[in-house]
Design a protein that fits this description.
Shape: globular
Low-confidence stretches: none
Helix content: 25-40%
Mean pLDDT: 95
Structural class: alpha/beta
Strand order of the largest sheet: 3-2-1-4-5
Radius of gyration: 14 Å
Order of helices and strands: EHEHEEHEH
């Protein structure tokens, strides 16, 4: 699957700290054979990829469409429709399918949201295969 992760409040916190589990969960998804992309309403976030050494995890970075989601994919240079998105904004999840992630817990050491997301993706795949 082509899986798109949002950046702000999804893989990083409001004060630009990497959320717990990012490298482990995304690495596992990649090892499972998924294509992983990063997008943001603030544009391609290569600076985040560089800062946290995430080059091996994301195939590309894109602008995220914030309205007319499907119609704007081509305009924003996204060559395909995401199969699954992880975002803190429900409207993006509603547009493409995926899971809404809670914003990072104030105490990051207790934040397990990305592991929950992994479990949701695994269940989604099982449901697809069972159909």
């Amino acid at each position: 699957m082509k899986i798109f992760f949002d950046c702000d409040e999804t893989i990083i916190t409001w004060d630009v700290r990497l959320r717990p589990g990012v490298k482990e969960v995304i690495g596992r998804l990649k090892d499972d054979g998924h294509e992983i992309y990063l997008w943001s309403g603030n544009g391609p976030r290569w600076e985040i990829v560089r800062r946290f050494e995430l080059h091996d995890l994301f195939l590309d970075c894109y602008w995220k469409p914030l309205y007319r989601h499907h119609e704007r994919l081509e305009e924003l240079g996204i060559p395909f429709t995401p199969d699954f998105v992880i975002d803190d904004h429900q409207e993006v999840v509603d547009a493409f399918g995926g899971v809404r992630i809670e914003v990072p817990a104030h105490e990051l050491s207790s934040d397990r949201e990305l592991w929950r997301v992994y479990d949701v993706i695994e269940q989604y795949i099982q449901n697809l295969e069972g159909s």
